[in-house]
Each structure stands twice: as structure tokens, then as C-alpha cells.
Amino acid sequence: MQAPVLVLKDSLKRESGSKVHHGNIQASKAVADIIRTTLGPRSMLKMLLDASGGIVVTNDGNAILRELDLAHPAAKA
After folding, report:
1. pLDDT tens digits for 11-60?
2. HSE, side-chain direction, 13 A CA sphere, residue 22
3. What residue spans define the domains of the chain?
């Protein structure tokens, strides 16, 4: 089986180390903080603006994750 070929931009650079590790943790914590308040018996509703400009009120974590525009790779996963 062949390894997949990745075509990346020239301006893209790979980083590694503890700085990236801490950045991944911070991004994951930010998403968890958004979802945390929608869980449990005392869950709160979230008011979201969807892509078309409409207002959505929900406490469904999946609906909230769909509406988030995440740029961080660890937060998307």
C-alpha cells in the first residue's frame, strides 16, 4: 500500500514541541467550555447566529459544534 501524497502550500510550515502541545490543549479547552454548559440537568440554552443571519436557540451540543467556525486543527477533531 502506498503512502498518501500531500500537496501543501509553500508558505506552510510545520511546528512541533511543547508550544504546539499547549496550543492544542488550549484550543480543546475552549471548545469544551462552550459545550460544557449545555450538558446536565442544569443545562443552559445557547443563542447562535447561523450562516444566513438567523437566530438559533439550542442546547444541543452537536448543533452548536456544526455552527462553530473553527480554524485550529485540534479543535476541529
Report:
1. 767 777 888 889 889 988 988 888 888 888 888 888 888 778 889 888 88
2. 3
3. 45-76
pLDDT value for 1: 64
Maximal C-alpha separation, the chain: 51
Report the 3 state secondary structure along 57-74. Answer: EECCHHHHHHHCCCCCHH
Phi, psi of 8, deg, nearest 5: -115, 160
Output the CA–CA distances (angstroms, integers) from residue 53 to 48, 62, 65, in the order listed: 9, 19, 17
Q: Count of residues for the chain?
A: 77
pTM of structure: 0.65
H helical segments located in the chain? 18-36, 61-67, 73-76
